Amino acid sequence: GAGVSQSPRYKVAKRGQDVALRCDPISGHVSLFWYQQALGQGPEFLTYFQNEAQLDKSGLPSDRFFAERPEGSVSTLKIQRTQQEDSAVYLCASSSAGLVEYNEQFFGPGTRLTVL
Amino acid sequence: ILNVEQSPQSLHVQEGDSTNFTCSFPSSNFYALHWYRWETAKSPEALFVMTLNGDEKKKGRISATLNTKEGYSYLYIKGSQPEDSATYLCAFKTGGFKTIFGAGTRLFVKA
Asked: In order along chain A (116 residues), what is the average pLDDT of each group of 10 residues?
């Protein structure tokens, strides 16, 4: 079956623009995670959804970052008034039902955001 | 602040060499340790989920061990091949939803 897909794969934005990054998880996967990976670092947790409920948004770096998953499947990460420090790869991952600590996560290919 | 360290940052080996790298994590509130392989231009792919102290897992030429009391895991690759070239990430899970990743070990295998 299809894996996790993300779009766009690459996005160039001018400082101050709003961007929206889309994630299509594996069908039926309950859990959905967003991560931000800066150059030379590991992925950093941003937020977690269980179905449509956003249960943890502690990793969102500022109130310019907003994520939603209104029907419990596709998710969108929105960044308002982008800044240069937002330049990173944004990864989405999904996993099936069960204890979230133990389930393997299936990752998308990421969206590389460059803010000029 | 929970910290996950991986060493070395990068590693260059010849085809056929065996190699290993380390992931260090907090030894308290441990739930699971995940290993992922991330090839360039692809998605990270799960290798192992390790939960019990003393766990050893194997997939083909790749194996991993876990010591939760001292807070480390080793990943071993036997007889490295060029297709093993990738970044290997470990991820620590404590209770809750957050996953804490290390920065990865970048492996280059020369034919």
From this structure: 90 98 96 94 95 95 96 97 97 87 90 97
At position A44, the amino acid (one-letter code) is E
- Alpha-carbon distance B33 to B81, whole Å? 25
Q: Are B99 and B31 in contact (CB under 8 A)?
A: no
Give the torsion through C-alpha atoms of B14, B20, B21, B27, to 10 deg. Answer: 180
Sequence-ordered list of residues with C-beta below 8 angstroms from that of B108, at least 6 positions apart, any chain: B10, B11, B12, B13, B85
CB B72 within 8 A of CB B25: yes
pLDDT, residue A7, reads: 97
For residues A79 and A67, give the distance between their C-alpha atoms in angstroms, rounded to a whole number.
9
Q: For residue A45, count CB atoms less than 10 angstroms from its CB and return exposed for 0-12, middle for 13-18, buried for 19 or more.
A: buried
**CB spacing of B49 vs A33 below 8 angstroms:** no
Q: What is the DSSP letter of A104?
A: P
In this structure, are strands A10-13 and A111-115 parallel, antiparallel, or unpaired? parallel
Query: Span B21-49, mean pLDDT?
Result: 93
Sheet holding B19-24, edge to edge: B5-7, B19-24, B72-77, B62-67, B56-59
Please give the Cα distance from B100 to B98 (Å, whole number).
Answer: 6
Cβ separation of B99 and A104 shorter than 8 Å? no
Q: Find chain B residues with C-beta within 8 A of A105's C-beta.
A: 34, 46, 99
As to burial, measured by CB atoms within 10 angstroms (0-12 exposed, 13-18 middle, 19+ buried), residue A80 is middle
Q: Which residues contact A98 (CB under 8 A, 6 or more apart)?
A: none
